Amino acid sequence: MAEGPRPKRKHDEEEAEAAPHDGAAAVAPFPLAELRLQRVLRESARDKAVFLHGQVTSPSGEGTDAVVILEKTPFQEEKVLDLLKKHTKLELQMHNDIYSTYHLYPPPELSEIKTTVVYPATEKHLQKYLRQEVHLIRETWEDYKNITLPFIQSQSFSIQWVYNILEKKAEADRIIHENPDPCDGFVLVPDFKWNQNQLDDLYLIALVHRREVKSLRDLTAEHLPLLRNILQEGKEAVAKRFGVPGSQLRIYLHYQPSYYHLHVHFTALGYDAPGSSVERAHLLADVVDNLAMDSTYYQKRALTFALRADELLLKKFQEAGRV
Amino acid sequence: MAEGPRPKRKHDEEEAEAAPHDGAAAVAPFPLAELRLQRVLRESARDKAVFLHGQVTSPSGEGTDAVVILEKTPFQEEKVLDLLKKHTKLELQMHNDIYSTYHLYPPPELSEIKTTVVYPATEKHLQKYLRQEVHLIRETWEDYKNITLPFIQSQSFSIQWVYNILEKKAEADRIIHENPDPCDGFVLVPDFKWNQNQLDDLYLIALVHRREVKSLRDLTAEHLPLLRNILQEGKEAVAKRFGVPGSQLRIYLHYQPSYYHLHVHFTALGYDAPGSSVERAHLLADVVDNLAMDSTYYQKRALTFALRADELLLKKFQEAGRV
Fold this sequence. Notes:
2 copies of one chain form a homodimer.
Chain A: H1 12-18, E1 36-44, E2 49-57, E3 63-72, H2 80-86, E4 89-96, E5 99-105, E6 113-118, H3 123-129, E7 134-139, H4 141-154, H5 160-166, E8 177-179, E9 186-190, E10 203-208, H6 224-242, E11 249-254, E12 263-268, E13 281-283, H7 284-293, E14 303-308, H8 312-319
Helix pairs in contact in A: 4-8, 6-7
Subcellular location (chains A, B): Cytoplasm; Nucleus
Binding site for substrate (chains A, B): 161, 171, 191, 193, 254-265
Subunit structure (chains A, B): Homodimer. Associates with components of the exosome multienzyme ribonuclease complex, such as EXOSC3 and EXOSC4. Interacts with NDOR1.
């Protein structure tokens, strides 16, 4: 994380020093200016984000696919005054009574755009970001065994990046907290989606060390110590590092998750985080209580989730006549 | 207005053309650079917006309040390529496997910020935009009996408007579907928040005929016929009237609800409806399964919900030492 994000608060200095400036510097930056735009996969006017499918010419000479995600960044409280004073241009758009609107054009240093590149990108990546109609699935345990599990096993979506983090081969300097226990331990890191410039959209991920737990469906009372560690130590680590108390954190799992290595999401309660809606998120506190009440709760209960029209898993449910 | 749905680009153009340029020209632009920042009223990391309370010195010499709303603008498809090619600076933030993130700093002309000024602003305006801190509560059944229930009973929220609908004294013409059974029946009406102009933000409410059920906490297996009627008939009615299939509906209860007469929310799955996040929404299908599994599930289980700092119920939990 050379040129690492600058978290606000007192940790700035330590953080800056902690960041290894050679690790990332070794990597050639993606040739963004040479990107040939193929299509806009998705736009979100609300999130001020756009998902692009582009191509760049690889060393071997042929076009290689890339996904480029551009997202405008939240305002930083400490830079708002600069914005008002240093703006290069202010255009009056309209004025009515006590209300007026302007176009403000700030200097580059105050206009950061968070850019995420997936390169080389597979067809799966392109599909993942393509806007699609969604359908709600009510998955029984039988559906899971007969449709979802075989599907997961047939897929080979690489989670090497998860192992890189767990093995400290990547993002080691980004680790916020670790419990090294191979069975009940985990690593807490900032999510890619969070640039750490402000706490409003705080987003961290706890990745468990044990590798055989795919999702909520695999959890039993055996995993309670692990889950309680994540809940307890995760809250403490976020409070210590970022000053955000546990009562202002939304701590949850996704079902379906986007990758099948058990992980837990920590987001700021005030942040309307994508994926925090009821049809996908399961509060860790509820999961713990459900397992404490019935060790096989998640091997019995139907679970609801949404699938996009293009997702192969939806086709499997359709073929099975379950949609 | 900054948080409202963005008008489509077409409207933006009309809006721009509609803006009275001469009238506007007559008005001296707001002295944004002279604004003395008093406080940040609210930030929205998701919407990339910030609401500021500032002061400027009025002609008469004393400080006058203003609300300044800054909101980053959505990407315009036709300008995305410029953004990639003309960016002034690209900084590698982190790199892991096929994923990398960058900070991109575009030129001013590609970094418009929508700026809205309310000037002079009254205390009402300041309050309107002020963000309240939220706290997560984990309410046990004992908390419910000792804190929440007495609080609800001490309040006299009028729900006459609900009775007016149930008795056809109001909105009779808006009823989408009714099951008249006094015990297991309900009325389905469009929610006030939905203008019915488009299906994207479809929002309906099912109000039960029986009046003694306050919330999720009162539900037992006795209510399964009622809940199953709402789930089944509600889906059918929405499909019949609006052509939206049940697989594209999010059907849920709120806890805490905003009024204590049992009601169920129906929203378009594609619509990121306020109140559909995991800390407030409970899928009706899950509620039915939980009650079928254990009639007293909701008299046993802890339930999580968020309260704003100014809510009286939060004070009650604080007084009881539960926050």
